[in-house]
Amino acid sequence: MEMSTPMVELTSTTIDIVLAFASFLLLLLMLILIFFLIFVCKPWRFFLSRSFTRSTTRIAPVSRNVKAEDLERPLVSEDSDRNSEVARNYDLEGASTQIEGHFNSPRTQGLAFKHRIPPTSPQHSHSDSLILDISEDTSVGQTLKRPSVTNISGDLQKVTEDLSHESEFGSGDKPNKPVPKHTVDQRSVLVLEVISGPSRGLRYSTQSTNKSGLPLTLGRVSPSALLLKDSEVSGKHAMINWNLNKLKWELVDMGSLNGTLLNSQSINHSNSGSRQWGNPTELASGDIITLGTTSKIVVQITSQTEQIPFGVGVASDPMSLRRGGKKLPMEDVIYYQWPLLGIDKFGLFGICDGHGGAAAAVSASKLLREVVADILADSVRRKRVLTKCDASDVLREAFTQTEASMDHYYEGCTATMLMVWTDDHENYCVQCANVGDSACFINIDDKHIKMTEDHRITSISERQRIQAIGEPLKDGETRLCGLNLARMLGDKFLKQQEARFSSEPYISQVVYIHQANSAFIVLASDGFWDVVNSRKAFQLVHETRDRSAKNGENTEEKIANILLTEARTQRTKDNTSIIYLEFGSNNRDSFSKS
């Protein structure tokens, strides 16, 4: 009996400790639950949202296809230092000439561009998809509840029609005045190229007469015309539109979180943090647009008084070595010009694929156009081309003079240039010249014609040319001085060391395209042809043309992008650039109606 009393006391103490610990745990769980309800569930949003809904006085159309997360603020990248890497050696002057010319067919691809209702008060906060009047008692940082789309969808068509002729960003209360008749035929081509940031190498182009594609949006979510995979870019970051009254391109910030700079000057709304749109600012050729801190876009603007009488589509992507990996340096250069400066009825379309850098490709693309224009400025030589329907001498001389003018010793490029000209009956002649492995194919009434020659070391024709020089290649030898090409422009140092290198172009036969013919041309760099053969390319073209014809769409730009997507799907590991030209009665009909 004497031993039992301490044991009872010990047991009672243990129970007290256990109860105290359980009480502590229960209290801790209650605190965690309260914290979760307050800071995670945020129950007050329900009441504030109802209050805000009652204070809303006007709602603009909302697209059915826009998801709720489209309007969320962008995520600030934790590795912004890594993404801020800018190509310091990038030649801005060269970049502004990398795509020059005019598109007949704007990029459609089913994008739905929405106009903005002119605000009745300068205090409105809005985006391109949703416009709301916010009462003064709404707290800053409050999450706003999106209104039901079904309540306003019935007015979408009418509002779109009412705004279809609006040319500015809706900064005024009155609609724009009718455009003077003499300005209707004035056309301007806008080309945007991303020169730094995660989407470096991405390009987009449009023209001032593209009513369905304007205004165009720059942002992180679809359906932005220039879709940037940059976490510092807002879903709908900035907008570009053509001002018919001023005949100028204008840029406006759409209330982005991280801001928009034009030539290092902010164009945001003066009330920073309000997420209100800024004022429209005029663009000029050579301007640099910065979205956030890393994505920089160079602007190229060219004027055209004559529209290309056939369809043109252009697409390019630097690609990456593995899916989701870092983009490769962009060394392809696309160029096109119709008509040539001061030379009616003649145009050039080409791709230069650089190696060792893009400088040689930029120089070659500029020199080739200048030399051809100088040669054809001679009326005698121009008449000879038109009479004989043959530009072989012009193309050969253009390559010779370009090679002589280039001083690139350690950089070189391939060059594929297509010349197109019309006769007195509006029929077309096309002829191609090339060095390297960027290829050009034409399909005319379902007949396939290759208009280039492959100048890789492994090519049979190239090995025969080298053997004729007297220094044949050894069996199994696939490279000269580390290059898999035997013909290129530039690379002066290698050509001094190895006599088997050449800059002599291959000149194709002239292909005649009659008005009644249905024809298209695919010109692409080796990044495309390495993974897609001509048969597959033509199949994709035919399928896209058939689908687009049923929907009444312009196909050229869409086809170029579908071909680019196929190369990406096939995991190409090289820069890929594509020019697509389409000739035919259907294209002329659409041209005459535009």
Automatic annotation (TrEMBL):
First-tier enzyme category under EC: hydrolase
InterPro entries, sorted: FHA_dom, PP2C, PP2C_BS, PPM-type-like_dom_sf, PPM-type_phosphatase-like_dom, SMAD_FHA_dom_sf
Residues annotated as domain PPM-type phosphatase: 311-583
Top-rank taxon, per record: Eukaryota
Cofactor (UniProt): Mn(2+); Mg(2+)
Keyword annotations: Hydrolase, Magnesium, Manganese, Membrane, Metal-binding, Protein phosphatase, Transmembrane, Transmembrane helix
Pfam families: FHA, PP2C
Region spans: Disordered: 163-184
Transmembrane feature ranges: 20-41
GO molecular function annotations of the record: metal ion binding; protein serine/threonine phosphatase activity
CDD domains (UniProt xref): FHA_PP2C70-like (cd22678), PP2Cc (cd00143)
Protein name: protein-serine/threonine phosphatase
Gene source species: Heracleum sosnowskyi
